[in-house]
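Lab meeting minutes (informal)
Scribe: AK
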Amino acid sequence: QVQVVESGGGLVQPGGSLRLSCAASGSSIATMGWYRQAPGKQRELVARITSAHSTNYADSVKGRFTISRDNAKNTVYLQMNSLKPEDTAVYYCRVVTQEFARIYWGQGTQVTVSA
């Protein structure tokens, strides 16, 4: 069983920054990613990164968000800069194991961008 624990959400003013962290334990991890879900909307991909550090981003966050990971710690980070009110959502960490490609989700962390 893989445990996925997120941290780092909170309230920030427009234009501000936040850094999210997600640690996975219990298995070797292939892909790690961040998704978000705003009220009344479907969950969407924000960014993801492979074990080889290949990344891809949603168009809405390109140039503002940066995803990175520490393979030794099975930890992924999301640095969010120039935050906008439309970035407000619950952010979820998703990991895919190397063995059998099993998917696990974190519990979610709230990010609120408001003046």
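Next up, CB showed the second protein from the same session:
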Amino acid sequence: VQLVESGGGLVQSGGSLRLSCAASGFTFSNYAMRWYRQAPGKERELVAFITSAGGSTDYADSVKGRFTIYRDNSKNTVYLQMNSLKPEDTAVYYCYTHVIVRGYWGQGTQVTVSS
């Protein structure tokens, strides 16, 4: 299993970014996916969740209405569209999946929001 995130960067407050997570090594369309983030000095937190077919999603309260998770099973990729970014969204963002008996993390992508 391999998860590779991309799309992070530096953006001004109020701006937008779209993160991508390209998956391989498993049947992507069979598994739910998650985005987490970890800010300096803080614990890793769940940001968004999407079911295997993409029919159901859920979000942390802090990002509801601003972030959208979606997936393209034909491309084995999950996305996180982030709008109205705030400085407190600054973190390393990771995608995650649980396949069979263990979880897998990507290497993360840095998002920095300047005020």
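CB comment: The chain has a mean pLDDT of 97.
No objections, moving on.
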